[in-house]
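Extended Data, record LysR family transcriptional regulator
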Amino acid sequence: MISRYGVFCKVVELSSFTKAAELLGYSQSSVSQTVRVLEQEIGVTLIERRKDGVRLTPDGAQYYPYLLAIHTAEKALVEKQGEMAGLKNSTITIGTFTSISRTLLPSLMNSFQQRYPAATFVLRQGDYTSIGKWIREGSVDFGFVNQDAVDGVELSVLYEDEMMAVLPPGHPLVKQRAISLGELAAEPFILLDEGEYSVPLAAFARQRLTPRVKYKVYDDYTILAMVRQGLGVSLVYQRVVEGFEQGLEIRPVRETPKRIVALAWKNRKTMPYAARQFADFILRRTAGNG
């Protein structure tokens, strides 16, 4: 329900009690009484009632900017209350993969909950294929995907993530500043399981190479541990390996295989309010950081 400040501002805006009453859905007598109560509260006559309409009195002209500011602040407060109510008791369900869950989401969720402490999260771990399926069927609100690995969804690109060669200490290839896919293909290879679409395998295929896959592993950080033990070499995303270089030798790959990480949803217009707020928050925070 609009306050007396809002009623007064609408009368001034339309220069008419009748038009203001019609627009607000009130009777003309109710609008007139509301303005009269406001005048009694302030102690001055704010509006001069004339046959050709209404206009502000000199006192009314002095008070109007302040009354308008109160009305504007009230509207902002109502909007904020609606916004907060939209997040209260809301659960945001996100499809994600390991590296996002470890490197990106924790700080984003922490910052978001400082603003919206009532928001809660459910993280569903998967690969590109399963996350794309969850988005299309609506079992997650949105998800992180490889742009090249999904279809049938709306998405917004976040950043590019280049793959790096990961080698155990003392491996002959560590003497080189950069390593080719051909050299990696000849070694016992630990393949990151990314679902139906594999960035490493696609990169090898473009070079008409077939790597000697000895292990296929879902978790990026398990791969790092296996390489430390000398079980093979691998390709791991740069953002994954940052901070975990100890006991490993990291080298760029000449052919620069990479993925384009995007945020994806089925239909932005039908996305739950809380999820849409968090998705927009992610997009703002990651803009320019790719």
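Summary. The longest strand covers residues 154-167.
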